[in-house]
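Incident review: delayed structure delivery

Summary: a single-chain prediction request sat in the queue longer than the usual turnaround. Root cause was a stuck worker, restarted by the on-call engineer. No data loss occurred. The affected request and its eventual output are reproduced below so the record is complete for anyone auditing the incident later.

Affected input:
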Amino acid sequence: MNAVRLPRAIVNQLLQFAQKSPHEEICGLISRDRDGFKKCYPVANTAGDRKRFFTLDPRAQVAALRTMRERGEALAAIYHSHPDAPPLPSLTDVEQHEYPEVLYLIISLGTKGVLEMRGFSIHDRRIVETTLGLQE
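Output delivered after worker restart:
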């Protein structure tokens, strides 16, 4: 997964979600179908310290995956934000990553007021950055 083009509508949605919750990590899933990235599924963060960590709400995660399957979609990406840190996977992010075949998106709010989003693939604790582009 060297380069990925994300629909502008999904990118804008992710950035808005992050801006609406600047003091805690937001998280969720993004689906795809045979034509590409399809839909964003926000999932509540149930971590004890939501400012520094994220845990996808298990029930909401299962519900989102079920909805994807019913719509003929598949899991394409997992996203979350870093309110006060750069958009790089933390040690916790790497240790808890359970879907090596999906894109891992991190949105940062901690870069002097400028929103930044980066993508990664994580497999066997190896991190490889994915180039992100916009699709109209």
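Verification: The first helix runs from residue 8 to 20.
Action items: add queue-age alerting; document worker restart procedure.
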